[in-house]
Amino acid sequence: MDASDAGSDSAVPAPAAQRIRASDQDRTTTVATLGDAYAEGRLDYAEFQERSEKAWQSVFTSELQGLVRDLRPAAAEHPGSIASAGHRLARAGGAPGPGISFAMMSGQERSGRWNCPAQHTVITTMGGVDLDLRQAVFESADTTITCICLMGGVSITVPDDVDIDVSGLGLMGGFGSSRKAREVVRPKDGVRVRINGVAIMGGVEITRKDEEG
């Protein structure tokens, strides 16, 4: 065996070394870095939005690294954990999501990481819709959710770092939120969700839970 053969077995091809699959935390950390860069003026809004969308769609860590490579030293501020400011910035500025949730004699659930648009409408007719906003990424820091509920139910869960304003009407039904949900918790530059609409012989309930709840 010559010298060139001796090292060939232990050598790792460069492409294989780069194809490490990204986790959800890797994607969130990258978007947090992009948010810091946008806040500092390193990226304009269009660049931030485009790169954030690519981050959520990335499969490998090398793709994520490419999105922040030209943002050093900002990228070094998020080596592997989610800073509180970065987590907040990741809340808003996402891509537009589905404009409507609909349930007729059935049910629909939106939970986990999903994009919530600036305007979202919920319609239920003898059905139920569950909206969980705890891991949602909002298109806008000011979001409106309109609920039209006829003999059905809507359940909306908000996290501790999102403020809400509820102004719906219940007719032979209920439209309301718990005391905890009504507490003003909006941080500076945080997200506010306005929830309005009408519940006829049905109910709309808003509760507040943290990420672990």
Helix content: 25-40%
- Counting DSSP H or I runs of 4 or more residues, the number of helices is 7
Mean pLDDT: 76
So what's the oligomer here?
A: single chain
The fraction of residues assigned to DSSP E strands is 25-35%
**Structure classification:** alpha/beta
Domain DUF1707: 20-71
Domain Cell wall-active antibiotics response LiaF-like C-terminal: 119-173
Protein name: Cell wall-active antibiotics response 4TMS YvqF
InterPro entries: DUF1707_SHOCT-like (IPR012551), LiaF-like_C (IPR024425)
Please explain how this structure is put together:
This protein has 213 residues and is of the alpha/beta class. It folds into two domains: 17-91, no CATH class; 100-208, no CATH class. The protein contains seven helices and 13 strands. The chain has helices at 3-6, 14-18, 24-39, 45-57, 61-68, 84-91, 179-182, and strands spanning 100-104, 107-110, 115-116, 119-125, 128-132, 137-138, 142-150, 153-158, 162-166, 169-171, 174-177, 191-200, 203-208. Helix 3 (24-39) packs antiparallel against helix 4 (45-57) and helix 3 (24-39) runs parallel beside helix 5. It is elongated and about 60 Å long. 30% of the residues are buried.
